[in-house]
Amino acid sequence: MVEHDPDFIEAADEVIEIGPAAGQDGGTVVFQGTPAELLRSNTVTGRSLAAAREMQRRANGTPSRPVDTEPPTAKVPQKKERSETRWLKLRNVNCHNIRGLDVDIPLGTICAVTGVSGSGKSSLIADALYPHVARMLGQVCDPPSDASVASIDGVSQIGGIEMLDQSSLKTSSRSVPATYVGAFDDIRGVLADTHEARKRNYKAGMFSFNSAKGGRCENCSGLGSVTIEMQFLADIETTCDVCGGKRFRADVLEVRYRDRSVCDILDMTSDDAFTFFNGHRRIQQRLNSLRQAGLGYVRLGQPISTLSGGECQRLRIASLLAGTDASAESPRTAGKASSAESAALGTLFILDEPSTGLHLHDIDQLMQCLNHLVEIGHSILVIEHDQSLIAHADYIIELGPGAGKSGGRIIFAGPQTGPDLVS
After folding, report:
1. Long-range contacts, stretch 327-332, CB < 8 angstroms, 24+ apart
2. 292: closest CA among 323, 312, 327, 321?
3. Rounded Cα distance, 85 and 122, in Å
């Protein structure tokens, strides 16, 4: 079983951990043994599990276990303290198993909506709140036929609303992280400003693999690979035999910045490129957004189609941190701030189970991004089950008590209880 959930890991007979990190820094067995041995190890998962156990003990008011059972580097993340001062108030919400529900959503905070599967979380937030608020902000967004809200107060206190789910990004086969966060335009400008490029009269467009007028390899149209159509079998994708997968013509690859060609740069990870472009503040700012979103291991030229759902969600967040328009190719966005006034009000970001497929360490990085968005004036609304993520929330709304007809009611709403984790 491939799993990140702490309860599943601790219930296993044997645990194998791959690491020590992601991408090029992974691929090694860093631990194999029992869950108890893992808790005493100094691996990323061992430290994360130990911290999660400590958070649970604090929430339950039980004393800590002996020091020798905890790895010395296990740290319990500290939750930022915020108070609710602005509210989005929905009255008489009806959608699927929700009937006549009144709910108040705090703004300027991280609010977690939780409950058992089928309790009505997505019905309330994704099917009722999101489309109705989007329409009030002037967006074309149709709610389900059985979704209705009698009144919504507080919309004037937000500048926009955006849904960040784990669906695949609506991008072309040429889209890469460097283009999605807006860093590649500036990188091409740096290459065009080199002595060799000026001598050859190469402009920034020459280093684009999207334009036929640029310096891309025409055999593969800048993709680095070609598809061989098979009449009776599945098509075969193979590396371009002209450019060798480098996407560009040989003469373009002769232009180098700090002894790196455009192909070499696209093959860098976000972490490596951030250091490489020292002195280029705008490029570093956009690359740092990938690092803040926990995507420092992703290569700049990696096709976005190869990213997982969780990575796509974090890439959307990275584009927001970079200041680019994440909604340009996504149908699930609305109300992007188009004026200084709406930008000052901030955006309400809705995330649907962002912890899916994420390690506890990745969740900590994700929460750092979400906290940063709140600190610069936005609001976060998260549909979530994961206790480690809920522990970081400022306010919790729980639906239930059961699923289907037994759900659809608010059984708890209030600030985070306990020092670190909701009980």
Report:
1. 327/162, 329/169, 329/170, 329/171, 330/169, 330/170, 331/170, 332/162, 332/163, 332/165, 332/167
2. 321
3. 25
Q: What's the average model confidence in pLDDT over 171-186?
A: 87
Alpha-carbon distance 241 to 225, whole Å?
8
Nearest to 169 by CA among 268, 298, 271, 303: 303
CA distance 106 to 108: 7
Question: How far is residue 232's CA from residue 349's CA, in Å, rounded to a whole number?
Answer: 47
Contacts of 75 (CB under 8 A, 6+ apart): 47, 51
Tell how many helices (H) and how many strands (E) occur in the chain.
16, 14
The C-alpha atoms of residue 29 and residue 45 are separated, in whole angstroms, by 12
Kindly report the number of other CB atoms within 10 A of residue 408's CB atom. Answer: 26
Neighbour tally for 369: CB within 10 Å: 20
Q: Determine the length of the chain.
A: 423
Average pLDDT over residues 177-194: 95
DSSP E strands, 166-263: 225-228, 236-239
What does the pLDDT look like over 4-56, one tens digit per residue? Answer: 888 899 999 999 999 998 888 899 999 999 999 999 999 999 998 888 777 77
What's the pLDDT band for 341 if we cut at 50, 70, 90?
Answer: low
Model pLDDT for residues 49-108, shown as the tens digit of each residue: 888 777 777 766 665 554 444 444 444 445 567 877 899 999 999 999 999 999 999 999
In terms of Cβ atoms closer than 10 Å to its own Cβ (0-12, 13-18, 19+), residue 398 is buried
The pLDDT of residue 279 is 94
What is the sign of the dihedral through the CA atoms of 271, 277, 281 and 286?
Answer: negative
